[in-house]
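Render this sequence as a predicted structure.
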Amino acid sequence: MAVIELAGVALAALLSENFVLVSCMGIGTRLRAFQDPIDALRTGYCLTAVMVLSALLSWLADFLVLTRFGWQHFRLLFLCLLIPGIIAGLRLFVRVCLPELSRRMDDNLASIGTNCAALGCALLISQRSYGLGSALVFALFGGAGATVAMASFASLREEVSFHHCPRCFQGMPILLITAGLMALALVGFYGLHLT
């Protein structure tokens, strides 16, 4: 039964509750992540790592400290301080231990600080009272779903010529319509449960 529940959480995070297209939480990343597929993948990897670490640390803090002492009203403040702390610690760790990786990924990690998907993931995990396994699965597949959405949009933007559409739709309007159609495709999975 637990495997089926985890699979349901994974499918929900990946498809019907996609952080970028359905919840509109991962849009705070820099614009280049939606234009270059390689940059979209790098940003997605960084976002997934931050989401998993924040899910682990926020679940532990929520379970061991905030709930035990009745400090649930400090949860949002704690999460708002935890996410930038994780990003700063990850940037420092990568800069010291893996300097070549830091050269390529530092801008992507810095952009996660303005991305509300990591904070939204940790807050949703806390509000839904997920267990530790479900929280980690939700964060991992939520990050993977955001990565796929950003990479798909960037690849579509790179491959398809949007210049053959009517003049009034060229530029940002056709990009917003495309993003809306991608979101509608994922909303079709809403309500999908494994039972």
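Summary. The chain has a mean pLDDT of 84. The radius of gyration is 18 Å.
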